[in-house]
Write a structure and sequence with these properties.
The complex is a heterodimer. By secondary structure, chain A is mostly helical. In chain A, about 55% of the residues lie in helices and about 10% in strands. Chain A folds into 2 domains: about 35 residues, no CATH class; about 80 residues, 434 Repressor (Amino-terminal Domain). Chain A has a two-stranded antiparallel sheet. In chain A, helix 1 packs antiparallel against helix 2. By secondary structure, chain B is an alpha+beta fold. Chain B folds into 2 domains: about 170 residues, Cathepsin B, Chain A; about 150 residues, no CATH class. Chain B is built from 12 helices and 8 strands. In chain B, helix 9 runs antiparallel to helix 11. The longest helix of chain B is centred in the C-terminal third of the chain and has 28 residues. Chain B starts with 10 loop residues before the first helix and ends with a helix. The chains are: A mainly alpha, B alpha+beta. At the A-B interface, strand 1, strand 2, helix 1 and helix 3 of A face helix 9, helix 10 and helix 11 of B.
Chain lengths: ~130, ~325
């Protein structure tokens, strides 16, 4: 990659950051060049983000329809999945899946809710609502 | 001595470059990367990130920090903490002593990073070099950021004690004693040989050049599964690992090429300069692979995993030839 080939087309997922790439200058030496972003990276990052947003929105719809608990919605909203939430909260995966049932979730103890809330950086009040 | 920030392309090599410079041994980022034999390739289908296999273009986290100890006669001290409060107290104590401290953090909890890049990746390295007197915020040098940043204490605590794969457990590290300018004639050939061994002779078929071929096979198999959405997620993940923040482009191949140029000068071996040129070409091929993948994800080209697999095999052949030549050159 030459200096002149370092992409500067912008990448919305960088939020205005510029990143450092190594490229070859006129003297033949590689050195750091700041890049405003490459569309290829924007595409693959957006793809990952959009997938998480889709899961979050689907979970929100199911909460409104009474088919799942706000726990599942918040899990996707903070970009986690069941294995990661299990590691972060110390609750077994099968228990987490059980807590996706609205009736079971409604009867959870404050202590258990606090564990989930803490793992996801939320308050208990936020955890109980899907918005 | 006042701390001096400089932007790097990879967090771990950037942190070590800044830390060594602060302790009186100016080494470039590519030199810390190459000297610790950090270049690699690994396709790890067993380790899943959001349900997709891990692809790495470098050695595992901490390999750079640990790998620099021997060539530089440096002793790094690593401390982890079961109790977050103890970890916070220890960091404050070291900063009050005027030390600069390396920290392992989770990207997700660092508020100064762009929202869209904050995934649950637990092995991001930053340097702490002080605290704001009034707000108590930590002053950080994050190698991938253009300038120094500040981070509120509760956020940094969360980032240091995040759970999950590669959990940092509050890890902090700093050098004990003074790093020495090494005997380049000895350490550089050793470091380069180690990288060629990793790329060519790894006993597992998922590491090194064979790992690239293994990944090609896995991508080819996606063809038959007939689930285009999943295929696209899989190939998108490979490109994210290769290009997203912290690789210097081309899955670290350009950083390593820069290291080879430095080594050519220090060892007075022009052959390494020619090899560096070849590696720049290979890095460009990785970028072509990324471009072809992104076009297929966006349906600008028809989805064709077979074509991507063929491109990967072509890269694998070139890397095999390159590392064999590199082995002969040192």
């Amino acid at each position: 990659m030459l200096d002149s080939e370092v992409p500067q087309e912008g990448n919305s997922t960088l939020g205005g950051h510029r990143k450092a790439l190594y490229a070859r200058g006129d003297d033949g030496k590689l050195h750091i060049v700041q890049s405003a972003g490459w569309e290829v990276e924007e595409i693959v990052t957006r793809q990952a983000i959009d997938d998480l947003l889709r899961l979050t929105e689907e979970a929100r719809q199911r909460v409104l329809a009474g088919q799942t608990s706000p726990l599942e919605y918040h899990m996707y909203r903070v970009r986690m999945d069941v294995p990661l939430l299990s590691q972060a909260s110390g609750v077994w995966q099968w228990r987490i899946r059980r807590h996706f049932r609205p009736a079971v979730f409604a009867s959870l103890s404050p202590a258990l809710l606090a564990r989930y809330a803490d793992a996801m950086g939320l308050s208990i009040e936020q955890l109980k609502k899907a918005d | 001595m006042d701390f001096q920030h400089s932007q790097a392309s990879h967090c771990e090599s950037g942190v070590m470059s800044s830390m060594l410079r602060h302790h009186g041994l100016p080494l470039s980022e590519p030199m810390t990367f190459g000297l610790s034999s950090a270049l690699s390739f690994a396709y790890l289908p067993i380790i899943k990130i959001n349900g997709l296999p891990l692809v790495a273009y470098r050695m595992p986290p901490k390999a750079i920090i640990k790998g620099l100890q021997k060539p530089l006669g440096l002793k790094m001290r690593f401390e982890t903490f079961r109790n977050p409060a103890a970890g916070v107290a220890r960091l404050n104590e070291l900063l009050a002593d005027g030390k600069i401290v390396g920290l392992q953090t989770s990207v997700f909890w660092l508020p100064y990073l762009p929202e869209d890049l904050r995934f649950h990746f637990n092995a991001h390295n930053v340097l702490a070099f002080g605290r704001d007197q009034t707000s108590g915020d930590y002053l950080l040098s994050d190698p991938v950021a253009e300038t120094t940043v500040s981070c509120p204490a509760p956020d940094l605590q969360r980032a240091r004690f995040a759970k999950g794969a590669l959990a940092p457990k509050g890890l902090l590290y700093y050098p004990v004693g003074q790093p020495q300018t090494p005997d380049w004639q000895k350490v550089l050939p050793a470091a380069i040989k180690k990288t060629t061994r990793i790329m060519l002779d790894a006993p597992l078929p998922i590491i090194g050049v064979r790992g690239i071929r293994h990944l090609a096979k896995a991508i080819e198999k996606l063809d038959a599964s007939g689930d285009p959405a999943r295929t696209k997620m899989f190939i998108g993940q490979v490109v994210r690992m290769q290009e997203e923040i912290g690789t210097g482009g081309g899955g670290f191949r350009f950083i390593y090429a820069s290291f080879l140029q430095e080594a050519a000068e220090l060892l007075v071996r022009p052959a390494l300069n020619e090899l560096s040129e070849t590696l720049i070409d290979i890095g460009d091929e990785w970028r072509e692979f990324a471009l072809a993948t992104a076009r297929q994800i966006r349906d600008r080209d028809p989805l064709a995993p077979k074509a991507l697999a063929d491109k990967l095999r072509q890269i694998a052949d070139r890397e095999q030839g390159f590392f064999r030549d590199l082995r002969r050159a040192v």
